[in-house]
Design brief:
Elements lengths: L4 E5 L1 E4 L7 E4 L2 H9 L3 E5 L5 H8 L4 E4 L23 H15 L5 E4 L1 H9 L4 E2 L23 E5 L5 H6 L2 E4 L6 E2 L7 E6 L4 E5 L6 E4 L3 H5 L4 H15 L1
Parallel strand pairs: 1-4, 1-5, 5-6, 6-13
Antiparallel strand pairs: 2-3, 7-10, 8-9, 8-11, 11-12, 12-13
């Protein structure tokens, strides 16, 4: 049986030590997780050529929107606020094109951290530019070390989704983010929250497989977490149908 090909979006970064030198980058944890779950990873380099992007996407059975820099707040109608992090306009433009084109295929999409937030923004939602603007926060959502360490609980509040199927009502996760969803995007459903109310997972119910998750399962899977691997296995399974 042919293994599904999974595209993974990448970052557009500047090399500080060498002026005017840019590169496409991606944590190896993403590709490791796809391989572990039975898929074939294909890293998608940053380009704004829509025809090239369409040709790239035609090769794919599924899409992972990876983590990374903050999303430009102009994309959700806000000025820059205090504590916003590094943004990447080049990446924003390329991933918006990728999402627009890949949604036409109706194939599975998994958004992780930034990817989770990008899905929300694409569907006309907004973000808190820093977690300090969210009044209910009491948990630490940005741990300092040990990428595979679970640091807080996520409550799965909707029973009609793969997270509940895999884990029941609760799951322990890691956390590496400072922005969170504010206004929910059109057509999306909140399916999981942290104990302080922060939205940890979203789903588009009328799509075959469109999920966003705020934590980083790939970091855990790449370091041997078998339970978290189930998310990727379910994703790969959906890409094989």
């Amino acid at each position: 049986m042919k293994k599904p090909i999974i595209g993974i979006t990448s970052a557009y970064e500047r090399e500080e030590a060498l002026l005017n030198y840019h590169r496409t980058t991606l944590s190896i944890d993403y590709t490791k997780s796809i391989v572990e779950a039975g898929g074939v990873p294909l890293v998608i380099p940053v380009t704004h050529n829509r025809e090239v992007i369409k040709s790239q996407l035609s090769l794919l059975d599924g899409l992972v929107l990876s983590g990374g820099a903050d999303i430009n707040p102009f994309l959700y109608g806000q000025d820059f606020k205090k504590n916003i992090g590094i943004i990447s306009p080049e990446r924003d433009e390329y991933e918006m094109i990728i999402l627009e084109e890949f949604l036409k295929t109706k194939k599975p999409i998994l958004g992780i951290c930034r990817g989770h937030q990008l899905l929300n923004v694409y569907f006309k939602g907004t973000l808190f530019q820093d977690i300090e603007y969210y009044e209910g926060t009491v948990l630490s959502h940005k741990q300092e070390r040990y990428p595979d360490l679970a640091t807080h609980k996520v409550n799965i509040i909707d029973k009609e989704n793969i997270l509940f199927e895999l884990y029941g009502e609760k799951i322990m996760v890691n956390s590496f983010h400072h922005q969170i969803i504010d206004k929910l995007g059109q057509g999306l459903t909140v399916i999981a929250r942290a104990n302080d109310g922060v939205i940890e997972s979203i789903q588009m119910k009328n799509h075959k497989f469109l999920y966003g998750i705020q934590w980083h399962p790939e970091m855990m899977v790449a370091r041997g977490n078998k339970k978290m691997k189930k998310i990727f296995e379910k994703f790969i399974e959906s890409c094989s149908i």
